[in-house]
Amino acid sequence: MKRVYRDAVAGVGEGGYTVELDGRAVKTPASRLLVLGNVDLAQAVAVEWAAQGETIEPDTMPLTRLATTTIDRVSDHRDRVIDEIAAFGATDLLCYRAASPVELAARQADGWQPLLDWLADRHGSRLVVTEELTAAGQPEDVLAVLRELVAEFSTPVLAALHTITASCGSLIIALALADGRIDAEQAWRLSRIDETYQGERWGLDPEIKAQGERLRGEIAAAAHFLELCS
Questions:
Q1: Total-model pTM
Q2: Residue 230: its pLDDT value, please?
Q3: Alpha carbons 15 and 100: distance in angstroms, whole number
Q4: What is the pLDDT, as a whole number, of residue 1?
Q5: Mean pLDDT score of the chain
Q6: Is the pLDDT of residue 204 over 90?
Q7: What's the first-to-final CA gap in the chain, in angstroms?
Q8: Can you list the alpha helix ranges (DSSP code H) found in the chain?
Q9: What angle separates helix 206-229 from helix 39-50, to the nearest 10 degrees?
Q10: Residue 76 in contact with residue 155, Cβ under 8 Å?
Q11: How far, rounded to the nearest angstrom, does the alpha carbon of residue 54 sit from its chain's CA centroid?
Q12: CA–CA separation, 221 vs 227, rounded Å?
């Protein structure tokens, strides 16, 4: 899509803040008005639009994408999105450990166990850890607590949390990031312990490396969106 506007600025609209292109408010792909909860978020989204060249490149506008997802998808299907996020708790990355090599097992324990301990200490819920390939079989009461935690977040935060959870393969990493216990870079590194170890030993496949960098960017953008929403 070609750029047909000159200026992109934050504005004030009914129910919140907007992004205006030459005075016209941006709409979502579903033709809804893009309404943002605070001026900082609106200004950040406007910066993405202002930074576009002759052609609009959606991949360079992660905040816009999360904002439109909030309005077009999450707001209409909030319970479904909560279920999708919470479902990661049943097969959370942090619960599946390597028995060997010893160095990899140690890295997983050092990186992942503190977050599981944090979950248990703060929310009274402890997930089961296994070295088996089969599902760990998490306690139903723990999974229920995790869903309740997810359901407490606002709709915009859920959009960011969904991206972080899916990108990391871990609900616990996403919750720790939302809580401020870790930052986006730590979240990404914790989610890539296995790939990093294999890369150090055998070299990293270019496709895996590219995928890792893409996920790194998605996590960073979602964390920024989450911070702006707060």
A1: 0.94
A2: 80
A3: 55
A4: 87
A5: 96
A6: no
A7: 32
A8: 39-50, 62-69, 78-86, 102-123, 140-151, 155-168, 171-179, 184-191, 193-202, 206-229
A9: 140
A10: no
A11: 29
A12: 10
